[in-house]
Amino acid sequence: MKFDTKVVRAGISPDPTTGSILPPIYQTATYVLEEVGKDRGFDYTRSSNPTRQVLEANLAAIEGGEYAISFASGMSAVDAVLKLVSAGDHVVAGDDVYGGVTRHFDNILIRYGIDFTYVDSTQPEAVRDAITPKTKLLWLETPTNPLLKITDLDAMVAIGKEHDLIVGVDSTFATPVFLRPLEFGIDIVMHSTTKYLSGHNQLIGGVLVTNRQDLFDQMKYIQKTIGAVSSPFDCWLNLMGLKTLHLRMARHAETAGKVAEYLEAHPKIERVLYPGLASHPQHDLAKAQMSGFSGMISFELTGGTEAGRRLMNSVKLFYLAESLGGVETMITHPATMTHAEVPVEDRRKRGLSDGLVRLSVGIEDAEDILDDLDQALAKA
Ligand SMILES: Cc1ncc(COP(=O)(O)O)c(C=O)c1O
User: Fold this and answer.
1) Number of DSSP helices (H) and strands (E) in the chain, helices first
2) How much is the average pLDDT of 117-133?
3) Which of 88, 91, 158, 340 is most buried, judged by most C-beta within 10 A?
4) Residues 84-110: tens digit of each pLDDT
């Protein structure tokens, strides 16, 4: 199957009992055994569920992986990866990973004896220099949230091999439509399926995809033991959202390109971060590594924080909201919303200014999106 066909069809077949074109929602906690020691492939929904299995088969196919595990949230998927390491181990992470990930590492996991070093993942030498004999995991994002930095996956795989590390990539912003990190040799791909992969702000979910059976077995065991599973209904909703992933992403990216160009030419805009712009410091790498630039844009206004605040309070069509990747255009203020719990000094060090505005460009008519931005910028 070609990619677009996989999105619509992979892992999904009509229900054998009724012919239902959509997989049934197996809303059950448990399964009756035929006799002692003999079940029909399922025993308890914390371990597995037929609706979840269909979603996992579809997600594995579109990410180009052997195995997928569907989680109750993106964060619980990240947590399962971090449970592959033990007290005394060290993790190197990109310095512009999602704020909730930093919160988990710095406020919770650190108490369990795991050490973290953050580095600019656009600089392979800095990544290499941060590795110690105790390093077990490299945790990366590309493009990063919210500065849209591009991480060179070939370089990261080489570093991982040199030092025998597990390399994990949060590919939420890119989606498998534009980037498939497993094809580069990355060990684990993670998505917050809350975002583009479900696409309509209808659920909270996450997924891990891998080609390595050893990692799959461990992560599946961790999930089955703890139970951060996605509910059958959420799995079904996710499957519905996924069917149009390729169409949605093409539109998100097309309109985001127009919005980025509009912003770059606007006199009230100081800088625009969008990997599709020639002015992006890693535009060439983005072009080589990705087949499109997705729908996320960050920018700063010449009037700084106050102008940004006025802009965000003046939008009419856009929603001022946390999250991203839905069909509706959303505007976010990372410093007070998604990254509010990252200490202010750390935000400054990362280059995440208080004036930074993040846009998740939706699939409404591009003219309406540009008009709303135009009227809001006039007030900023
Ligand atoms: C890049 C990225 N990774 C992970 C997460 C966490 O996912 P979730 O909110 O589904 O737990 C988010 C949420 O915003 C995100 O943007």
Assistant:
1) 14, 12
2) 98
3) 91
4) 999 999 999 999 999 999 999 999 999
Read off φ and ψ for residue 38, nearest 5 degrees.
-130, 105
Cα separation, 334 vs 350, whole angstroms: 13
Query: How many angstroms separate the alpha carbon of residue 192 from the centre of ligand 1?
Result: 5
Q: Is 144 in the pocket of ligand 1 (CB under 6 A)?
A: no
3-state secondary structure of 103: helix
* Same domain membership, residue 299 and residue 213: no
Check whether residue 130 and residue 276 sit in a common domain.
Answer: no
Decide: pTM greater than 0.90.
Answer: yes
Q: Is the dihedral of CA 364, 370, 375, 376 positive or negative?
A: positive
Sort strands 67-71 and 319-320 into parallel, antiparallel or unpaired. Answer: unpaired
DSSP reduced 3-state for 86: coil
Structure tokens at 281: 């410091």
| Domain that residue 362 falls in | 245-379
Using the atom order of ligand 1, give the atom closest to the CA of residue 195.
10
